[in-house]
Specification:
The protein has 2 domains: 48 residues; 214 residues, Orthogonal Bundle (MetI-like fold), CATH 1.10.3720.10. It has 13 helices and no strands. The longest helix is centred in the N-terminal third of the chain and has 41 residues.
Length: 284
């Protein structure tokens, strides 16, 4: 009797899992289709890209568009983007870890106001800050420099880094820090030796926020830079839009190249990213 009752229940579970798989697969294909179409078109000759009717799979595969963009300073653009992104991540995590730890573990005058300020700054649209930051960089002679971009990206992303790490630090057992202090560790050493190693998921999540913004940013970079030597990859891609027409092959090739690093990072660090986002949700 129990076996007969279990069989229909197992059948319903199997059908539900199959339905979920089909639905999730369709959603994934729908979301990935523009990327797959761009990848396919970047491997087509120029005349085949605009051919009608369009074909998803290229009749003739070619790498001419990728070769062209790397002959036209794409390597310099990638280097600039990578340098600016890595530098912004390092500075943001260094300052954000100190700020987040101070808010999570110390009581001081103005702590509540500082937390409100951090949350409030995150709500300010970046576009509204372009004029004052442009004026500031101009006074400091940092316009059209990689250093200026690094400082801006760090300033823009520092509040979300502080808030992410604050929540994660708050969830860590404070008893571990107390034990380290009894052993003679100073507060900076506790942060470096105890807190940060235990906060790897939170650090990865914060770093990914900074990386995605810094790597993909167009508005700030196009406003603050003018020379090709400093231009980042998103601004370099814009060159292929052209005034009289679109150069679809190089444009799509450059777009695919710009996607690859972020996708690779997310695939490699996905488990840290998910645990980092949820780790600060419950106080340990």
């Amino acid at each position: 009797m129990r076996l007969e009752t279990a069989r229909p229940w197992r059948g319903r579970v199997a059908r539900r899992k199959a339905a979920n798989f089909v639905v999730n697969t369709l959603i994934a294909l729908f979301a990935l289709f523009p990327i797959l179409w761009g990848l396919s078109s970047s491997l087509k000759p120029a005349d085949e890209i605009v051919a009608y009717p369009p074909k998803l799979v290229p009749t003739t595969f070619t790498l001419e568009h990728y070769i062209r963009i790397f002959h036209e300073q794409a390597g310099q653009y990638i280097f600039n983007s990578a340098l600016v992104t890595v530098s912004a991540i390092v500075l943001s995590l260094a300052a954000g870890a100190l700020g987040g730890y101070a808010l999570a573990r110390f009581t001081f005058a103005g702590r509540g106001a500082a937390m409100v300020f951090v949350v409030g700054v995150m709500s300010i649209p970046i576009a509204s800050l372009l004029v004052p930051t442009f004026s500031t960089l101009s006074v400091l002679n940092l316009l059209d420099t990689r250093t200026g971009l690094v400082l801006l990206y760090t300033a823009y992303q520092l509040p979300i880094v502080i808030w992410t790490l604050y929540g994660y630090f708050l969830a860590l057992p404070v008893e571990l820090e107390h034990a380290a202090r009894i052993d003679g560790y100073s507060a900076p050493r506790v942060l470096w030796k105890i807190v940060l190693p235990l906060s790897k998921p939170g650090l990865v999540a914060a770093a990914l926020f900074v990386a995605v913004f810094s790597w993909n940013d167009f508005v700030v970079a196009v406003t603050m830079t003018s020379s090709a030597e400093v231009r980042t990859l998103p601004v370099g891609i814009y060159d292929y839009l052209g005034f009289y027409g679109r150069e679809w092959g190089p444009l799509l090739a450059a777009a695919i190249v710009s996607i690859i690093p972020i996708v690779a990072i997310f695939m490699f660090l996905q488990r840290y990213f998910v645990s980092g986002l949820t780790g600060g949700g419950v106080k340990g």
